[in-house]
């Protein structure tokens, strides 16, 4: 009787051991699968980031000859916005700088319809035929500094994708600090901050990198 009970217990122990072994194998296989999935997810995230960057780059290339005019009062353009902008540009920046008319392919207000919750006039977006005209307009706008039309300040900006605008704006806090230190800097396309430190130009590809260098400058002795 005791022998049969012992045999039954031994058989149960053997069965239990086999089940434990099977579970261990399954757990091990699942761990391998999880590790493989983690690797695949990381690769997919990397690929997705690369594709998003490519799409953003293509979008900005399509906007290469675009400009955004901010502050032009509503309805000032009348029914011919292209003709209006062709006259406004030399009026703002100097007629002598434009011996031949600037050729504008397209122009429109942005957004296309007014929104009651957004005060002020909508921006005017233009697409120029010649990229060099865009470069000249931006240069003249920087040199002239104050641009006015009908007593209102006008601002001229490049037209970037929302993602690139966000990246460039991320430098605003550190740029304020650099101005306080009287350090020369400029933002290079697409979103690289260049700072002149001790006569040498340093480039920063993220605002975090630039912030870290700013902290090291302010914390250095002397």
TrEMBL record:
Q: Which residues form a coiled coil?
A: 27-61
According to the lineage, what is the superkingdom? Eukaryota
- Which UniProt keywords are present, listed alphabetically? Coiled coil
Q: Which InterPro entries match?
A: L1_RRM_dom, Transposase_22
Report the Pfam families cross-referenced here. Answer: Transposase_22
Every copy of the L1 transposable element RRM domain together lies at 64-156
Concerning Gene3D superfamilies, the annotation shows: 1.20.5.340, L1 transposable element, RRM domain
Protein name, per record: L1 transposable element RRM domain-containing protein
What organism does the record attribute this protein to?
Answer: Myripristis murdjan (pinecone soldierfish)
């Amino acid at each position: 009787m005791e022998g049969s009970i012992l045999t039954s217990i031994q058989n149960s122990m053997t069965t239990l051991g086999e089940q434990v072994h099977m579970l261990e194998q399954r757990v091990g296989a699942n761990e391998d699968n999880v590790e493989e999935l983690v690797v695949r997810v990381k690769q997919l995230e990397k690929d997705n980031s690369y594709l998003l960057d490519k799409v953003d780059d293509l979008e900005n290339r399509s906007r290469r000859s675009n400009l955004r005019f901010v502050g032009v009062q509503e309805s000032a353009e009348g029914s011919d916005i292209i003709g209006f902008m062709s006259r406004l540009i030399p009026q703002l920046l100097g007629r002598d700088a434009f011996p031949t008319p600037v050729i504008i392919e397209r122009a429109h207000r942005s957004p296309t319809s007014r929104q009651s919750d957004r005060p002020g006039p909508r921006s005017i977006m233009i697409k120029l035929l010649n990229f060099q005209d865009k470069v000249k307009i931006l240069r003249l706008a920087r040199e002239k500094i104050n641009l006015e039309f009908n007593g209102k300040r006008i601002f001229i900006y490049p037209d970037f994708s929302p993602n690139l605008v966000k990246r460039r704006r991320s430098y605003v806090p550190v740029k304020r600090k650099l101005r306080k230190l009287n350090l020369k800097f400029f933002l290079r396309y697409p979103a690289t901050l260049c700072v002149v430190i001790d006569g040498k130009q340093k480039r920063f590809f993220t605002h975090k990198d630039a912030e870290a260098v700013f902290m090291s400058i302010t914390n250095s002795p002397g």
